[in-house]
Amino acid sequence: MRSKLALIVLCLCLAAATASAEVDARMLRYPDVSETHIAFVYAGDIWLVAKGGGTAHRLSSPPGEEQFPRFSPDGTRLAFSANYDGNSDVYVIPTMGGEPVRVTYHPDADRLSDWTPDGKQLLFASSRANGVGRLSQFYLVSPEGGFPEVLPVPYGDVGALSPAGQTIAYTTRDRGFRTWKRYRGGTAPDIWLFDLETLDSRNLTDSAANESRPMWHGGTLYFLSDRGPALRSNIWALDTTTEEMRQVTHFTDFDITFPAIGPSDMVFQAGGRLYLMGLDDEQYAEVEVEIVTDLASLRPRRINAADLI
User: What is the pLDDT of residues 71-110, one digit of tens each?
Assistant: First the structure.
């Protein structure tokens, strides 16, 4: 009887220790979703969690910050931008962990957009050779590495290739990292469509609002816009056949940032939390994520405050 009681007490202690190690974290950034998992960045590293939520595990730990993890179409690999060797380049790693493969080597920063629909190449943006440091161009490169191929789009920052791969929806600049909201001015980005065969382009949104992060799902182009009455960044959808535009989400307290699309879902962040939206019914709910960490940032430590005065 005593041994059974001791076993019960031990199990309760272990459960309590596990629970205390889990952090109901915020600031979960740059998410992406596959058929089974969600990848996101927390504390500068990439984490992986089941699509239904739960305890996440860390997938990467370089000294620099990772950005924009993107699942391959079959979900077996994850590409991302990271600073392992003193510069931001594109890397690929198996989804369940392994050694990262460096894909790009230019000293300019390379920002990943996504995989091509067939999974054979990676689309990224870089200002490495365009002559205008404030603007970028699009490149394609094999996930195994090699010499990147520049696309004939004059300038582009965030883009997504259509399912057929013939056209690219993109913005010429990105305001996702700006610190002010509801900007209305000459550098507010629009969603453009560029035909890679005919080299024709047209402005799809053409408004004073900020439109960004285009994402394809069949003939529907989802994107982020603050054109709604609440002036908050929400998900919108454009039917590329009828050109009908509609608002999908209606957040009024926080802006949606950094959405990404998967085979059957969309994931996005709002107020530091992750939300998952089914593409069949466009219903969304929060994904509850627990982080297991040593909370090293909360330890007492000395800081040189001379530069902060």
Answer: 999 999 999 999 988 889 999 999 988 889 999 999 889 9
Tell me the whole-structure pTM to 2 decimals. Answer: 0.86
Residues 214-247: tens digit of each pLDDT? 999 999 999 999 998 999 999 999 999 999 999 9
Q: How many CB atoms lie within 10 A of CB 221?
A: 22
Pair 172, 157: CB distance under 8 Å: yes
Locus of tokens 């392992």: 84
CB 113, CB 168: distance < 8 Å: no
pLDDT at position 183, please?
A: 86
C-beta separation of 224 from 213 below 8 A: yes
Q: What is the DSSP string of the chain?
A: -HHHHHHHHHHHHHHHHHHHHEE-----EEEEE-SSEEEEEETTEEEEEETT-EEEEE----SS--EEEEE-TTSSEEEEEE-SSSS-EEEEEETT--PPEE----SS-EEEEEE-TTSS-EEEEE-SSSS-TT--EEEEE-TT----EE-S-SS-SEEEE-TTSSEEEEESS--TT-S--S--STT----EEEETTT--EEESS-SSS-EEEEEEETTEEEEEE--STT---EEEEEETTT--EEE----SSS-EEEEEE-SSEEEEEETTEEEEEETTT--EEEEPEEEE---GGGS------GGG-
pLDDT digits (tens, 9 = 90+) for 12-57: 444 444 444 566 777 899 999 999 999 999 988 999 999 999 999 9
CA distances from 138 to 29, 187, 229 (A): 23, 19, 33
